[in-house]
Amino acid sequence: NDVSADIPQAIERCGKKPKLDVDGKHLPVHQVRCRQILVKHKACKDPVDRVRANKPVSRSLAEAEFALRETFDAIVASPDKGVFTQRCKHISECSSSLKGGEMAGDLGWISRGQVHPAVEAAAFALQVGHISDVVESDEGLHILWRIA
Q1: Mean per-residue pLDDT for 95-118?
Q2: Which of 4, 43, 55, 62 minimizes the number of CB atoms within 10 Å of its CB?
């Protein structure tokens, strides 16, 4: 799911550009930058919404997946990729959703071994500007948008 029209601004804000070797080919990626939307469920390792007054999360895994799939569909269907930011601020239970402006959900630069293996695999597999399908980790369910 390509949202690459928004990427030049995001890369400019991040201050990093892809590195090329002497032949102009991309070097192996050691870091990626992603934004995420996280929805927790009662079986995850910390079922508390720290964004909204530390409320306990009572939804099931199936309910969390339904909510995140609905969000994913809305993001993919919209030509306005500001929908990611709106949905992130509305539904995400990650403290990164509190970041201002268009950087809501920004996880910063991610290196290998820094995040849950499923999140890492999805983040590094994405092309810049693309959005992942739903990813499950012990923290809950995620949608990732690789911005650099």
Answers
A1: 95
A2: 62
